């Protein structure tokens, strides 16, 4: 791999998102287009909760390794966005309101007892990736947020249009993410553009984004196989 300019590197990152981001996954298309029943939407929300709940833990592992107060202040904001600054606030609490609105028992959701095995393995692999890889790779893995406003707008508009068991209050998790995700991705992209200075570092950055896209894609693969094709594994949520 030859050394890319920052603009070329950014273009390659955006190509990865265009090809691999999970808005292209068949399960997302079914969710957005109203092709799922309530039980299948419940399964999606239940499994996605584990990802949402682990995001602040993932960010905390990176926060502990950041070398400057400036970087730590920036990354700490992500943890506050998800965990909130007091009980009942933040993205994780809003996701629980979504699962509440879908009729799932909150204790059951928080227990994570009904997760698909692939969900658990994929999310934990992401936490371990951020904990163990370089700071540059860890930050680059967050760049799926470059593409999240598109999937959020599709998801919210589609679900509100097609499902009578979904309301604007149920979907309130997503509204702050329309501003938080671009803010966070702007910072991460600027960091990667500045610090990926060798072909090896640029390859690492591109691989990190590919890995994160694979995490999100594999979670939807598992949902499709279990709840659309009907192969629910032992111990997983049964509608």
Descriptive account of the structure:
GO terms for molecular function: pyrroloquinoline-quinone synthase activity. Keywords: Oxidoreductase, PQQ biosynthesis. It catalyses: 6-(2-amino-2-carboxyethyl)-7,8-dioxo-1,2,3,4,7,8-hexahydroquinoline-2,4-dicarboxylate + 3 O2 = pyrroloquinoline quinone + 2 H2O2 + 2 H2O + H(+). Residues 11-221 form the Thiaminase-2/PQQC domain. Pathway: Cofactor biosynthesis; pyrroloquinoline quinone biosynthesis. The structure is a single chain. This protein is mainly α. The chain has a single domain (6-228), classed as Up-down Bundle (Heme Oxygenase, Chain A). Helix content is 71%, strand content 0%. The protein is built from eleven helices and no strands. The protein has helices spanning 6-20, 26-32, 38-63, 69-83, 91-101, 106-111, 117-132, 135-141, 148-162, 174-195, 199-228. Helix 3 runs parallel beside helix 7, helix 7 packs antiparallel against helix 8 (135-141) and helix 8 packs across helix 11 (199-228). The longest helix is centred in the C-terminal third of the chain and has 30 residues, at 199-228. It is globular and about 50 Å long. It starts with 5 loop residues before the first helix and ends in an 11-residue tail after the last helix. The mean pLDDT is 94.
């Amino acid at each position: 791999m030859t050394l890319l300019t920052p603009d070329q590197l950014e273009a390659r990152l955006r190509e990865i998102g265009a090809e691999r981001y999970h808005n292209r996954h068949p399960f997302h298309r079914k969710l957005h287009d109203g092709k799922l029943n309530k039980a299948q939407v419940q399964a999606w929300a239940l499994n996605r909760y584990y990802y949402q709940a682990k995001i602040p833990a993932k960010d905390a592992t990176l926060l502990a390794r950041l070398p400057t107060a400036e970087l730590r202040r920036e990354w700490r904001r992500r943890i506050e966005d998800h965990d909130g600054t007091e009980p009942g606030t933040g993205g994780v609490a809003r996701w629980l309101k979504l699962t509440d609105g879908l009729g799932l028992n909150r204790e059951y959701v928080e227990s994570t007892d009904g997760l698909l095995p692939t969900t658990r393995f994929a999310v934990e692999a992401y936490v371990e990736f951020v904990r163990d890889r370089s700071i540059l790779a860890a930050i680059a893995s967050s760049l799926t947020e470059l593409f999240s406003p598109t999937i959020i707008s599709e998801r919210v508009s589609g679900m509100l249009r097609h499902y009578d068991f979904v309301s604007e209050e149920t979907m309130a998790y997503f509204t702050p993410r329309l501003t938080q995700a671009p803010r966070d991705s702007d910072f991460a992209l600027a960091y990667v553009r500045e610090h990926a200075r060798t072909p090896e570092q640029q390859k690492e950055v591109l691989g990190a984004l590919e890995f994160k896209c694979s995490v999100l894609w594999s979670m939807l693969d598992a949902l499709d196989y279990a709840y659309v094709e009907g192969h629910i594994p032992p111990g997983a949520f049964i509608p």
